[in-house]
From TrEMBL:
InterPro entries per record: NAD(P)-bd_dom_sf (IPR036291), SDR_fam (IPR002347), Sec_Metab_Biosynth_Oxidored (IPR052228)
Residue ranges, annotated region (Disordered): 16-35
Protein name (database record): Ketoreductase (KR) domain-containing protein
Organism: Dentipellis fragilis
Domain of life: Eukaryota
Length: 348
């Protein structure tokens, strides 16, 4: 599944220990509560910074993706691996919302999670599918509003939707589709779900948002990876007490190559099974990334910004390894994104 959220209303299963060194997810609550904080913190950022180069490159006019696309082929995705792992950890006692275009695939994952939740479940969790082509910002806003209406507190927000291909048409928002999926929609989801994350934080529960993309792969190779780092820092600065993480899944045997429009990537997909020694399954990836996310405490973080994390494919903290950015770029990318996504209520 491309995007999913874990809204744990009456059952906040996990509480991050106040130490980044603790090894495994805790299934019990800590009695110490996080400080109750205001709903947002303004740091008075300047909006007069020039639009970053990539942003100018990616804004072009074009068409949107179709809302639904069904496939009967077996589907594998990092998002599915993470959803199923979380379902195992919580033994079905959590409210899980899968967000995406493909209802048929989502319902299969939901059926699998229902079957796996086991006898120890109290049955008070739930599974929902929210239809959304997230390449369009208006869709993200509507979808987030619907989810928040049903789940006012959100403990974990996981965004994974992505594409890999030779062609990347422009969406109806005028944004390159790959950039829309790998960066702008993630920023928009983080922003729109802030009320739910803040409500969880203020209730003394875990409040964590993660963008699974390519932490540690930035620089000239992938500017969108830099943007994801800067995005997490900007949200963390404005929202103390909430964890914002950019994670790398590593090499995972998913549908990413098969779904591509590139014959070269299709060819690599054919030999993917031979690469088992250097790749992981979606389930292994899910476990690794959750281990990193559970350990991430809002009082810690990578580098200078408290609450912002960069998580590697084994769940390890990447710190500032292969980090490319600066406070000026962080402010510039924030202003640019507010403008491109036409977000009216963003913190300055
Ligand atoms: N797999 C890897 O080895 C690897 C390595 C490095 C980074 N990553 C990154 O990790 C993320 C997850 O990758 P993955 O391997 O899970 O990819 P995947 O198997 O192709 O899954 C991506 C999901 O995104 C969904 N999606 C695509 N366009 C969408 C849209 N417009 N609206 C809603 N959903 C959309 C697809 O759903 P439908 O097409 O069914 O709608 C698909 O389920 C991606 O950002 C990828 O770039 C992956």
């Amino acid at each position: 599944m491309p995007v999913f959220l874990h809204a744990s209303l009456d059952l906040p299963i996990y509480r991050a220990p106040d130490s980044r060194l603790s090894s495994s997810p805790s299934s019990s609550f800590s009695s110490s509560s996080l400080p109750t904080l205001g709903s947002s913190t303004s740091h008075g950022f300047s909006s007069g910074i020039e639009e970053p180069r990539l942003c100018r490159q990616v804004r072009r006019r074009g068409r949107a993706e179709p809302l639904s696309r069904c496939s009967s082929a077996a589907r594998r995705a990092v998002g599915q691996g993470m959803a199923e792992a979380f379902n195992r950890h919580t033994k079905g006692n959590a409210h899980i919302v899968l967000v995406g275009r493909n209802e048929q695939a989502a319902q299969k994952v939901i059926a699998k999670m229902r079957a796996a939740r086991g006898a120890s479940s109290t049955g008070s969790g739930s599974y929902t599918f929210a239809p959304c082509d997230i390449s369009l910002m208006a869709n993200v806003r509507h979808s987030a509003a619907d989810i928040l209406a049903a789940h006012p507190r959100v403990n974990f927000l996981v965004v994974t939707a992505g594409v890999l291909g030779a062609n990347s048409p422009t969406t109806a928002d005028g944004i390159d589709r790959t950039a829309a999926l790998h960066y702008y929609s993630r920023w928009q989801f983080f922003h729109e779900m802030l009320p739910g994350l803040r409500a969880a934080r203020d209730a003394g529960e875990d409040a964590k948002a993660v963008s699974v993309y390519s932490a540690g792969d930035g620089g000239g190779m992938d500017t969108l990876a830099n943007y994801n780092d800067l995005m997490c820092e900007s949200f963390a600065e404005r929202n103390p007490g909430i964890v914002f993480a950019h994670a790398s899944p590593g090499a995972v045997r998913t549908n990413l190559l098969k779904a591509s429009d590139s014959w070269l990537l299709h060819a690599i997909d054919v030999v993917l099974p031979l690469m088992r020694p250097i790749t992981v399954s979606q389930d292994e990836c899910g476990e690794y990334l959750w281990s990193g996310l559970y350990r991430a405490a809002a009082s810690g973080g990578s580098g200078a910004v408290t609450g912002a994390f960069r998580i590697g494919s084994k769940g390890q903290e990447l710190g500032m390894d292969r980090y490319y950015g600066s406070p000026e770029e962080r402010r510039g990318v924030w202003s640019h994104t507010v403008k491109v996504t036409k977000t009216r209520d963003a913190d300055p």
